[in-house]
């Protein structure tokens, strides 16, 4: 078991597992390194991911492949305008034989959940995910039902279509550790995708034959606990705190980041350090996750939007204005 080995070996094991996971994923999923790294960082940090991308970039393929590699169950929910909260969480169903109601679990009772086009459903359906994402449980008729761990929500939204969509409320946006913006693959990567996925071979067969399971839910839980043991020195804590607090006073930002953003930066920096085989975090770990951790938690002022400024550009300027602590 991971927890019985010396500290240095435990972090080296974390690095090895991360490399094995990415190696197996690359057998079927080409490119999109930011998506792979961001998703794995969120998974091992008790976080969730909001993905903004156009259709057809292989998000379902990625989650299915990730599930096989991790040895975790995979589920998918297609969000639509008529989707009800009970369609997600499940509901009591009357058992004719026993003459009583029994809880029938919904598709949320899985480990890797792809919430596809989440912004196509109304607020009451979004709210059904809030408790689950934060508390890892579903409460029906006063009874709590725990979802299996590890549990990761990957929600997607299409930035090109606004008709028939509902903006996610700030309370739910804040529940996501990262917002990842996924673009089209490079020319070389797209050519590789064409060669790899144009042979009309059943995906289930390819997952079975070509992709190996390199870890397990129990080992993932052990690694999550290990990531929490990574050291973050006080100067780095102050650096993270300064970054988050500065978003609330930055001239072009109307709404700044909440303390939960600082917690997300702390947790994800620890995880990145563990992926590197280290038991301590560095400023580079923090800088690598600032944009995905903050871009959905801040809002531009009306003037900045009129001037055509972008959130990522403003956050980049903000990062450069804060002095980086020396090791």
From TrEMBL:
GO molecular function, one term: ATP hydrolysis activity
Domain ChlI/MoxR AAA lid: 247-316
InterPro entries per the UniProt record, alphabetical: ATPase_AAA-3, CbbQ/NirQ/NorQ/GpvN, ChlI/MoxR_AAA_lid, P-loop_NTPase
Entry superkingdom: Bacteria
Domain ATPase AAA-3 residues, every copy: 48-178
Keyword terms of this UniProt record: ATP-binding, Nucleotide-binding
Transmembrane segments: none
Homology family: Belongs to the MoxR family.
PANTHER family: MAGNESIUM-CHELATASE SUBUNIT CHLD (PTHR42759:SF1), MOXR FAMILY PROTEIN (PTHR42759)
Name of the protein this chain belongs to: ATPase family associated with various cellular activities (AAA)
Lineage of the species this protein comes from: Bacteria, Pseudomonadati, Planctomycetota, Planctomycetia, Pirellulales
